[in-house]
UniProtKB/TrEMBL annotation:
Classification via InterPro entries: Glyco_hydro_43, Glyco_hydro_beta-prop_sf
Protein's recorded name: GH43 family beta-xylosidase
Source species, domain of life: Bacteria
SUPFAM superfamilies in UniProt: Arabinanase/levansucrase/invertase
Matches recorded under Pfam families: Glyco_hydro_43 (PF04616)
Length: 605
């Protein structure tokens, strides 16, 4: 008897905007899956997966776009395609998109090729469209205009949309939709896929979580110190693992006497509570000479001054009675008056620097840096050099107009780089939005660029351009063996929609080639990622004394438009493909049901 092949259902949809999930987020492609066609479960926590890309006019001003009526289909090579109708920021017909639809292709609905525009007509607005293979192996795109009339266009190759045929009148079509649409959604179509393909999609867009803890059954040691080095292995839903310290209960063991004992232990979790430091944004931690140093934008003093904390442990950085010093204060002579923003520690050419932005009497923060004097004490203002403004190759300011801020540094494959945010026309109709630029520097003099700035990213996606903000800012590098990642933030810097996205390039790539970088379409960390943390963003990375990579960022405790920014911290998890994840925290990191361990210990003579 032949077994019935496992099948799954996938559906796409947009959401109806509500008080907190604004149109910028809601008017994007969402996806859900189901074993039972009537029980769809949202993927990616019901947050958008694909966002329409904004346009940029002749004045360099961004015009936000959304989308409606997404439709999912199979391609002739067994992969997937997605089409949708582009709309303007208010959800209405978009004049720039008259007669056109958006098109994506994807091998697996996990990664997507760059979106294209396909022109179906020159005059009519497209209300919705569907796409299917025709008898020749090409595609029929059937669509309805705003007057209720139906048309069909034919396209042989999705990669060559310019080859599409003119529209012809057509009969009405039908669309399979969920029998029970998810609440608060505008449903698209349903597509049946085989089980393996569906499970891959489901796994890729479901949060990775802890599924168990594995420890050795028996170990032999000479001392308690050796036992503390025995780790547990945490298992995760995607097949990845992570080493964990264990607090072993050795109260019944005399390590001076040989013998065998069964003991219990508890997996040590990285459980520093949120919030850590209230009113501290854009946080950075530096492990330096056996101690930890903490830097941040200090909202508690109206962002005036650079404050540093020091402690022997991470916990003590945020404990009552912490040690803190002002190492750069308001200085009218130097015209350091306001917006002491986003200070970052960086070791460049063996020297310790702080990169930061500061403004004068006239508002307008600009990128500066200062260096710790040889043998200097980080906590002493007098041990730091006088800050200098970062300049271009020809000695002119980094920007002749506008603001520059959030500069960071990394060195990969012998090349030293700085990345920063630039914005022009803020508060005017010609606001460019904040943009990320990259350039190379010489380690011996990082205050002067050694290349022309290259535009890396602009806030063209709905999650980056939300709540009245247009942000790409707060870049920070994370280097792995095969990839250079830059985490950056978009959305409202002082609101709940702030979120962290990824830019990446393979190691050895040309970092000054903007086309060599990839940009993730959906955030790695948002207010949908972790319970009780709103507006997570402007992050940094560091390693603790165990070599664990940690992510540090600011978030808010309430879902409000403008809240108190507070520091937060948790572990970075690497998935089964070695890609860093920023949302594996709390019970998803170590579930309480798996935290208790047992092991047999043999004490050797």
């Amino acid at each position: 008897m032949n077994e019935v092949a496992e099948l799954m259902k996938l559906t796409v949809y947009t959401r109806i905007p509500n008080q907190d999930y604004t149109g910028s987020l809601a008017n994007s492609v969402h996806m859900a899956c189901a074993d039972d066609p009537n029980e769809f479960q949202p993927l990616n926590r019901n947050y958008g997966l694909l966002f329409a890309v904004a346009t940029v006019d002749e004045n360099n001003v961004i015009h936000e776009k959304g989308l409606k009526n997404p439709y999912l289909f199979r391609t002739q090579d067994g992969a997937f395609g997605m089409i949708a109708v582009r709309i303007d920021a208010s959800g209405e017909d978009d004049g720039e998109s008259r007669g056109q639809i958006l098109l994506w292709t994807s091998p697996d609905l996990v990664t997507f090729d760059a979106q294209r525009l396909v022109r179906l007509d020159n005059e009519r607005y497209v209300k919705e469209a569907v796409c299917a293979l025709d008898s020749t192996g090409g595609y029929e795109i059937r669509w309805q205009d705003n007057d209720g009339s139906y048309y069909v266009n034919r396209l042989a190759d999705l990669r060559k949309p310019e080859g599409i045929s003119p529209p012809e009148p057509a009969e009405a079509y039908t669309v399979e939709r969920p029998a029970q649409p998810l609440p608060g959604t505008c449903p698209g179509n349903v597509l049946t896929v085989d089980g393996p393909a569906g499970r891959k999609v489901q796994a890729a867009w479901t949060p990775v979580h802890n599924t168990g803890i594995r420890v050795e059954e028996q170990v032999s040691v000479h001392s308690a110190g050796e036992l503390t080095k025995v780790r547990a292995t945490a298992l995760y839903s995607d097949g990845s693992t992570a080493d964990k310290r264990v607090a072993w209960d050795t109260a019944g063991i005399d390590f001076t006497l040989p013998g065998t004992h069964t003991i219990h232990g508890k997996v040590v979790t990285f459980d520093l509570p949120f919030p850590l430091a209230s009113g501290y944004a854009d946080p950075v931690i530096l492990p330096w000479n056996g101690r930890y140093y903490f830097l941040a934008t200090n909202d508690n003093v109206n962002n005036i001054g650079i404050y540093v904390r020091v402690a022997d442990t991470l916990q003590d950085l945020f404990a009552p009675g912490f040690q803190e010093a002002v190492i750069l204060d308001l200085n009218e002579e130097l015209n350091f008056i306001q917006t002491f923003w986003a200070p970052e520690f960086h070791v460049i050419g063996g020297e310790l620097y702080i990169l930061f932005a500061v403004g004068g009497k006239v508002w307008g923060p600009q990128c500066h840096l200062m260096k710790l004097n040889p043998g200097g004490d980080i906590m002493k203002a007098g041990d730091w050099s006088t800050p200098v403004r970062v300049k271009r190759m020809d000695g002119t300011p980094l920007a002749a107009d506008g603001i520059t801020l959030d500069m960071t540094y990394f060195k990969a494959d012998g090349t030293s780089c700085v990345v920063w945010s630039y914005r022009k026309g803020i508060g005017t109709p010609l606001d460019t939005g904040s943009m990320l630029y990259i350039a190379t520097v010489d380690e011996a003099n990082p205050a002067v660029l050694t290349s022309e700035p290259v535009l890396l990213s602009r806030p063209l996606l709905g999650w980056e351009n939300v709540q009245g903000t247009i942000n790409n800012e707060g870049p920070y590098p994370l280097l792995t063996e095969d990839t250079v990642y830059i985490a950056y933030s978009g959305g409202a810097a002082t609101g709940y929609t702030y979120a962290v996205g990824w830019l990446s390039i393979p190691r050895g790539g040309d970092v000054l080639d903007a086309g060599a970088w990839s940009k993730a379409g959906t955030p790695a960390l948002s207010y949908y990622s972790l319970d009780g943390v709103y507006g997570p963003g402007h992050n940094s990375f560091f390693q603790d004394t165990d070599g664990t990579t940690l992510v540090l960022y600011h978030g808010e405790e309430q879902l409000v438009k403008h809240g108190t920014r507070c520091s937060a911290i948790h572990r970075v998890h690497y998935n089964s493909n070695g890609v860093p994840l920023l949302d594996v925290a709390g019970e998803r990191d170590v579930h309480p049901d798996y935290a208790d361990c047992t092991i047999q210990v043999t004490v050797l003579a």
